[in-house]
Amino acid sequence: MPFIAKNIDELTKIVSKAVEIKEDGVDIKDENKLRDTVIDDLIYTAVFSEDDNTKENAKKLIRDIANEFGAIASSIHTLYRAMGRGEVRDFTTPAVNIRGMTYDVARQIFKVALKHDVGAFIFEIAKSEIGYTFQRPSEYASAVLAAAIKEGYKGPVFIQGDHFQFNAKKYAENPEKELQVIKDLTEEAIKAGFYNIDIDPSTLVDYSKETLKKQQYDNYINTAKMTKFIRDIEPEGITVSIGAEIGHIGGKNSTVEEFEAFKSLSITRPQLGAMEL
Fold it and tell me: Could you report the per-residue pLDDT of 205-260, keeping only the tens digit for each?
């Protein structure tokens, strides 16, 4: 059973078995011991310690160790752009929503990826799932990165905020307040290493309007606002991959015409900044 640190002193003792903590990061002294026991103790502490300060320090250490190890939280933006240009093709990028036992499930995903030489794959969690599974972005990202270390995976780790969805009822009551809720969650996620964000105001599409552009307007305008917000806060040197939603999941399939209406709005209202979807 992994050891759960109760305080910073115990956490430091755990880490010192395999890692040297430095002012500008960490130095891995014993990779075998790190993968054998230390990373288990770290992630269990990050999730289950009763001391909040110890939990947060454990999460930071996992991120620092992952960076040194070579399991790097990354944006898939560049790969998607290359796919759009036709420079890479003939493969798909699976995305997996993990709703429980994240560390254990992520370990199996990395294990299979290494066995079959899988390249791009995404770990994601939706706004709704963050709520009902009680996994904040920092915990989810820590579990995924810890799993990469445990299984010996080195390379880009794509973690995505899936369906950061607007609540239509709350938006109708106070649009700016609901927009701020999504901004706050997005900023929290990006700080945790979610460099892929699916903006989802598709719940605001109003099919009662007489034209497709009017139906898509609130969806577009909030996608554009969120795109600008993300570009303003993304870390230096990282272009966060941004997704958008044309229609709400369920009920009907989105059409080419709806997409064209959505896209035309981004062309006619460039003052909010170019959207890279």
Answer: 999 999 999 999 999 999 999 999 999 999 999 999 999 999 877 677 888 999 99
**129 vs 134: CA distance, rounded Å:** 8
Q: Are 44 and 102 found together in one domain? A: no
Q: CA 148 to CA 244: how far, in whole Å?
A: 28
Strands 25-28 and 19-22, sheet pairing: antiparallel
DSSP calls for 104-137: HHHHHHHHHHHHTT----EEEEEHHHHHHHT--H
Structure tokens at 36: 């054998």
pTM: 0.93
Model pLDDT, residue 272: 44
Angle, helices 39-48 vs 137-151, to 10°: value is 170
Q: What is the CATH number of the domain that holds 184?
A: 3.20.20.70
Residues 164 and 203 in one domain: yes
